[in-house]
Amino acid sequence: MNGPTRTPVAIVGGGPVGLMLALLLDRHGVPCTVFDTAEAPHRTPRGNTHNARTMEHYRRLGIATPIRALGLPGEHPTDIAYFTRYNGHELSRLPLPSRNTRMRRTGRAPATDQTPEPVHRANQMYVERFLAEHVRTRPRITLRLGRTVTGLRQEADRVTLRTEDSAGRVHDVAASYAVGCDGGRSFVRRTLGVHYEGPGSLGQEVLGRRATAAHLRLPTFHRDVMTGTRAWSYWAFNSALAMNLIALNGEDEFFLLTSSADPDRTGPGPLADLVRRAAGTPLPVEVLDHRPWTPG
Ligand SMILES: Cc1cc2nc3c(=O)[nH]c(=O)nc-3n(C[C@H](O)[C@H](O)[C@H](O)COP(=O)(O)OP(=O)(O)OC[C@H]3O[C@@H](n4cnc5c(N)ncnc54)[C@H](O)[C@@H]3O)c2cc1C
């Protein structure tokens, strides 16, 4: 039987944290191997905002410009707008600049201004796909998708990881360091006996407890329903429902976050009806994906 494969650093989890760690190690000349259960980068929407500090990290790695090109078109405003229904009364609007306006302002700002890389709205699914592609171009980084870490053993001079591929074959890997980047329910964290403290959720009615997140295609929303100034985040509030629709690509893809559906029982039909009720008008709704989600 062959001995374990060796790697200086084993990164468990190839989400944004694991991929960024791999790129930062690479920048310092340290080879690593990233393991992720998923066979491909995630294709469902999650986090939407890359704050200035995150953009600065991308800049240090030379990838801020291509990441800033992801998500909404350059002139799409990033407003947050509140409605009773989407075809009804606009309650309020927080005007926020488009990507191009923001970058023009940053370009004109004095050199002592806080950051050359202001906040950027682009969904995590687009950025994760980009990061995974970029990681593949770096010879020091090995990306092992479809590989679940199922065991960790600490020894005097190494950590031995037991990994399992999608066909159930077991591969042992020896590393000088193993890093847990495997998300909120982290296997590494639990194996080390590290527990969370504090309350689990706020328990609030609107997106403050277990809710529903869905990826939608709404091909006519911007053309027929939201005919005024565009926004990034469209909230609908009335006595019957509350939801947030986030524009993903400025065209037909949207991210729905709502507490007005039972996260464990809802499905494409009820979610499409909910969106039509929020719109106040019939419109085509394709539910690409939906799942329960507890806002953090
Ligand atoms: C619906 C939704 C909306 C969200 N909205 C926001 C938002 O607006 N703003 C915000 O800041 N955050 C948001 N988040 C949270 C954000 O997505 C997470 O904070 C972020 O993904 C954490 O990144 P991570 O790399 O630590 O973990 P993850 O993205 O969870 O990645 C962990 C990776 O580890 C892999 N993995 C797990 N166990 C193993 C194992 N044993 N072996 C190998 N691989 C393993 C998983 O497949 C996964 O790819 C949202 C999340 C969801 C679900």
TrEMBL record:
- Segments forming domain FAD-binding: 6-206
- GO molecular function of the protein, one example? oxidoreductase activity, acting on paired donors, with incorporation or reduction of molecular oxygen, NAD(P)H as one donor, and incorporation of one atom of oxygen
Needed cofactors, names only, are: FAD
Q: Which UniProt keywords apply?
A: FAD, Flavoprotein, Monooxygenase, Oxidoreductase
Database matches in InterPro entries: FAD-bd, FAD/NAD-bd_sf, RIFMO-like
Give the highest taxon in the source lineage. Bacteria
Which protein are we looking at? Monooxygenase
Q: Which organism is it from?
A: Streptomyces parvus
Q: What lineage is this protein's organism placed in?
A: Bacteria, Bacillati, Actinomycetota, Actinomycetes, Kitasatosporales
